[in-house]
Amino acid sequence: MANDKYLFVVSGAAGTGKDSVVKALREAHPEIEKTVSATTRAPRPGEQEGVDYYYRTREQFQQLIENDQVVEHNFYNGNYYGTLREEVDKRLAARKVVVLVIDVHGAANIRRMFPGATTVFLLPPSVEELERRLRGRGTETEDSIQERLATARQELAQQDKFTLKLVNDQVDTCADALYQAICQRIGAAE
User: Fold this and answer.
1) Are residues 70 and 11 in the same domain?
2) What's the number of domains the chain is made of?
3) How far apart are CA 20 and CA 24, in angstroms?
4) Which keywords has UniProt assigned to this entry (predicted)?
5) How many CB atoms lie within 10 A of CB 51?
6) Among 6, 119, 120, 161, fewest CB within 10 Å belongs to which?
């Protein structure tokens, strides 16, 4: 697709600050769009269809996967979560910059479906800092932290498959570096 250059995927291990960096990026540059994901989990109080998520039944979600209408998905805590292809396609058709926050495995699928997309791997300043961040959340058991760290090491080994690597040692600085990369990419092919 000719407009793939407007698609940016931010990935990295848990605790690298993907969501924080993209939030800072979008706060500074609200013209950058983020898609609304689909899920099979029930809406939480106050959540709205098409704003927080697109809520689908398990059967509907599986049909979307079978029809190649989900660009990436995960199964977590008994529910599917994923990005609908139409969410990406409509923004790219309008030449809008789209940033997706996706795990390492989902990024591989994006590379297959959108070969012109830019994939960005966020790195922690160190593995020790990554562990400190995971522990600092205060939401994980020791077993869960150890499992996440083992997964993080596997994910960190995938970093060379990405277009660009950025170290997130400070959220605003990293968000600015990401914005500069976006400007360079979309300007280079104009």
Assistant:
1) no
2) 2
3) 6
4) ATP-binding, Cytoplasm, Kinase, Nucleotide-binding, Transferase
5) 9
6) 161
